[in-house]
What we know:
- By secondary structure, this protein is of the alpha+beta class.
- It has two domains: about 20-80, no CATH class; about 95-170, Glutaredoxin (3-Layer(aba) Sandwich), CATH 3.40.30.
- About 40% of the residues lie in helices and about 10% in strands.
- The protein is built from seven helices and five strands, in the order ααααβααββββα.
- It has a five-stranded mixed beta sheet with strand order 2-3-1-4-5, covered by helices on one side.
- α1 packs antiparallel against α2 (about 40-55) and α3 (about 60-70) packs across α4.
- The longest helix has 14 residues, at about 20-35.
- About 20% of the residues are buried.
- The mean pLDDT is about 95.
Amino acid sequence: MSKQSPRRIIPIKVERPSNLTSDERAAVLDACARLKKLPGALLPVLHAVQEALTYVPKDAVPLIAHELNLSIAEVHGVVSFYHYFLQERPGRSVVHLCRAEACQALGSVALESHVKARLGVDYHGTTSDGAVTLEPVYCLGNCALGPSLMIDQQLHGRVTADRFDALMAATRGPA
Length: 175
C-alpha cells in the first residue's frame, strides 16, 4: 500500500488593483491588440503606449505582460533599460538634452548647467508648474549641429543659453 503524500498548498500572490483609468487601460489594450502579432512586439507596444499616454504607467506593465504573454519582469526590464520610456507622468513639454561626446565638445556641459538652473530641476524632474520635464538623451543624431536638444519631438541644433531661453518662452507661453 503506497502512502499518498499530503497536498501542498501553494499561495497565490494577489496583484494589487490597477490605478489605470478606463481611458488609459483602453489605450494600453488597443496598442497591444494592434501590435501583438508583430515579431518582437514589445518595443512597438511600449512606443504606442507612450505616444498615447505620454509615458508608460507602472500599472500598465502587468497588463502589457499579460497581453503579450511575457513576464512582468521582461516588460519592466525593457521599460527601465531604455531611457526613452518615461515611467512617471511628464510635464506638458519634455526637453531631451543631448549628453553625447560630440555635443559635449561643442558646449553642452555649460548648456546643461544653464538648463537645469533655468528650469530649477535636475534630470528626470518636472518644473513645479508641471510645464516642463527634463530628460537626458545620449545622442540625437545631430552631432554636427551640437549642442542639441529636442522639445516635444522637435529637434534643435546649435542651442545656446539664450536660444534655450527663447525656445522655453515659446514653449511655455506668456508667464
